[in-house]
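Dear H.,

Thanks for agreeing to be a second pair of eyes. The structure we're designing against is below in token form, covering all 301 positions.
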């Protein structure tokens, strides 16, 4: 693959190009081979030119945030990985109850910002790993809250790489789904509409939810969070446990003994190890309950 034009674009904007970069270093699973090219554009114009080049030359590309919901093949990715990094991480107040967050901002940073300004509504997101853009892309949620409850609008690049604005209604946010998962749009920033609250109460709620995460989730091991979507009327973790799969292991991958909804990397797990665990879980749960679990994590190969 000829990446000379991307070289030229990055040189123009002073952006470093990383070749044969191990993607295991950019995902929470800590699994995955190398990509041909990895770039971290530091402005929208640079990003737009890289995307335009990839599309014009039929070069595969992937937009990566914090990598907290991605499993990368050990064979890597033959194409360009565009990382939405710290250059797109600004968080600011737009009015007394509205926060604007660039797509690369971590949810942890946004939740802390909301707390400092005594704004309530984002407590559920405290402790969810990942970026604002990734969270909106999959309508991330926990403990009864979701992005759709607080997202008011977003700025994005459309299919023609024009900067546009979209309302929450247009985002088609539903359980682990949005319009972005069906299109080539690139999220640039999100507006959250929150409510004035008591800072002490917000702090207490965040601490309570973080303690729940620590006590119930295997945060001490690399993973991509919940491996499966919640089946209607039930919980993936319950079905997996009933099927006797808690602790089920293939190579370095294991169904967590702490929370069976997580597949973890106990050390040295490969892409194939994780996929074997996922496939075995789906097969056994379906045989036992008639429920076909749906994978939540994204696969990049």
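And this is the sequence the design step returned. I haven't edited it by hand at all.
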């Amino acid at each position: 693959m000829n990446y000379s034009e991307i070289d030229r674009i990055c040189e123009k904007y002073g952006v470093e190009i990383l070749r044969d970069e191990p993607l295991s270093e950019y995902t929470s699973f800590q699994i995955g081979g190398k990509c041909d090219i990895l770039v971290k554009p530091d402005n929208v114009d640079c990003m737009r030119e890289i995307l335009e080049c990839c599309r014009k030359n039929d070069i595969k590309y992937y937009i990566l945030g914090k990598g907290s919901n991605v499993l990368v093949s050990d064979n890597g990715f033959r194409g360009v990985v565009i990382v939405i990094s710290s250059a797109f991480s600004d968080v600011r107040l737009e009015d007394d109850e509205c926060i604007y967050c660039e797509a690369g901002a971590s949810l942890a940073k946004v939740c802390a910002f909301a707390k400092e300004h005594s704004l309530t509504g984002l407590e559920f997101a405290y402790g969810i790993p990942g970026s604002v853009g990734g969270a909106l892309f999959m309508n991330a949620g926990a403990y009864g809250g979701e992005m759709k409850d607080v997202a008011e609008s977003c700025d994005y690049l459309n299919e023609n790489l024009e900067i546009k604005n979209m309302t929450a209604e247009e985002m088609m946010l539903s359980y682990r789904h949005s319009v972005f998962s069906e299109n080539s749009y690139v999220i640039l920033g999100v507006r959250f509409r929150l409510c004035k609250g008591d800072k002490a109460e917000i702090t207490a709620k965040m601490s309570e939810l973080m303690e729940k995460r620590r006590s119930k989730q295997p945060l001490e091991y690399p993973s991509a969070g919940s491996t499966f979507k919640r089946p209607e009327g039930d919980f993936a973790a319950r079905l997996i446990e009933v099927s006797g799969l808690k602790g089920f292991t293939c190579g370095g991958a294991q169904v967590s003994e702490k929370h069976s909804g997580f597949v973890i990397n106990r050390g040295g797990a490969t892409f194939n190890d994780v996929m074997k665990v996922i496939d075995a879980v789906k097969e056994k749960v379906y045989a036992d309950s008639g429920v076909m679990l749906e994978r939540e994590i994204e696969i990049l190969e």
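Two observations from my side: The CA atoms of residues 100 and 191 lie 4 Å apart. The first strand starts at residue 17 and ends at 22.

Warmly,
E.
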